[in-house]
Design a protein that fits this description.
This is JmjC domain-containing protein. It holds the Pfam family Cupin_8. This protein is of the alpha+beta class. It has a single domain, classed as Jelly Rolls (Sandwich). The strands form three sheets. Strands 2, 3, 6, 7, 9, 12 and 14 form a seven-stranded mixed β-sheet that branches. Strand 4 and strand 5 form a beta hairpin. Helix 2 packs across helix 9 and helix 5 packs antiparallel against helix 6. The protein is globular.
């Protein structure tokens, strides 16, 4: 069989795999879900914050695929790879001026801190406005600062991009047009495996995420003070946040804190005597909350952060930012991913940011000084 024939056959098999995976998850999770309802109104939430182990997201460089998978991916441990954009032309090319020049006349739809659609604006006007704003500190949030995230014009066209046929699609969507025109500027990060993915389905050949659009692929543009408030990604898959320009910071929370942190953000907590009882003892190895972790991250240009599958996180923009992101699940972690998703259900987004909770801000500031 010719190389062309093998490529077509492989792409067809991978596309069919995507369809089968979607159908399997729909039938197995949403029609037969046996997971328990989450507990609402944890009175000990703030105490859990007090007692949790605070960490900085570790920064590494020149890491192999095997080491990355063993130390971080399989252990659901967030990490920042400081040379993550190795080999990307985007480091030299992408800037607010570049996108103004290449796409500035386009009309784009913004989204708010909860991913809800907002106004349509001219891209050039929007980018020049946010690029002129001064930097802020973590926790400083502006009013009505919207993002430009991924926006698609039809589900069918999205499927064609997912299956590697995006170059044949006619579209007026900024996300789709940008994906077509910047393909040679970036590539799969060097520390991620080339194949063996369940999402997107890649059991034949290699994954080239710059050619085949992965789940939740998108360019993000955001202003200082903008916030993507506390959330878990929709399908609970891993995410890589690739920072090209500007600085982002925020928090990632262990799975054990998911309900607690959501309750705190949404105002379903109350200070009670249990606060002092839990907080004073800290979390011993054999305590029921020994897995409580809160990671704080500071993401700089040229770095890529892994946000492990299913973990709640909140992201703040500190200076005018350009980033790229996409989601995935590998073969070796699929069983754990599937069981966790069946137990917890789909992702969610809180109706308020965790940074706005005064008690959490106080606890965070104190731990920052330690």
């Amino acid at each position: 069989m010719s190389f062309f024939g093998k490529t077509v056959l492989g792409n067809t098999w991978n596309a069919l795999g995507d369809v089968a995976m979607w159908a399997f998850e729909e039938m197995s999770i949403y029609r037969r879900r046996q997971g328990t309802q989450r507990e609402v109104g944890n009175n000990d939430a703030l105490a859990r914050f007090e007692a949790a182990e605070y960490r900085k997201v570790e920064k590494v460089s020149d890491i192999s695929v095997a080491e990355f998978s063993e130390r971080y991916l399989m252990k659901k441990e967030p990490v920042i790879v400081t040379d993550g954009l190795r080999g990307w032309r985007a480091k030299q090319i992408w800037s607010f001026d570049y996108f103004c020049q290449e796409f500035g006349d386009m009309s784009v739809q913004l989204q708010d801190a909860g991913f809800k659609p907002k106004d349509h604006v001219e891209l050039r006007t929007y980018l020049r406005e946010i690029a002129s704003l001064p930097a802020v500190e973590l926790g400083e949030m502006g009013d009505n600062l919207s993002y430009l995230r991924y926006t698609y014009d039809s589900f069918f066209k999205h499927l064609l991009f997912t299956w590697g046929f995006g170059h044949r699609v006619k579209t007026n969507s900024f996300s789709f047009l940008a994906f077509q025109r910047i393909q040679e500027h970036w590539r799969r990060p060097y520390f991620l495996p080339d194949g063996g993915y369940k999402i997107p389905w890649v059991q034949v050949g290699s994954l080239h995420p710059n050619k085949r659009m992965c789940q939740d692929w998108g360019l993000y543009f955001s202003a200082p003070g903008a916030c993507t408030r506390l959330h878990v990604d929709g399908m609970r898959t891993n995410a890589v946040l690739c920072q090209v320009a500007g600085r982002k910071a925020g928090w990632i929370f262990s799975a054990s804190l998911e309900d607690v942190v959501r309750d705190a953000a949404e105002g379903r907590t109350a200070l009670s005597p249990v606060v002092s009882q839990i907080a004073s003892g800290k979390n011993q190895e054999n305590s029921p909350h020994s897995k409580d972790r809160i990671w704080q991250f500071d993401l700089l240009p040229g770095e890529i952060m892994l946000i492990p599958k299913g973990l709640a996180h909140e992201v703040h923009t500190l200076s005018p930012s350009i980033s790229l992101t996409y989601n995935f699940v590998t073969n070796s972690e699929y069983r754990d991913y599937f069981n966790f998703k069946r137990e917890r259900g789909h992702g969610w987004i809180a109706n308020a940011p965790i940074a706005a909770v005064p008690e959490f801000a106080r606890i965070h500031q104190r731990n920052q000084r330690l």
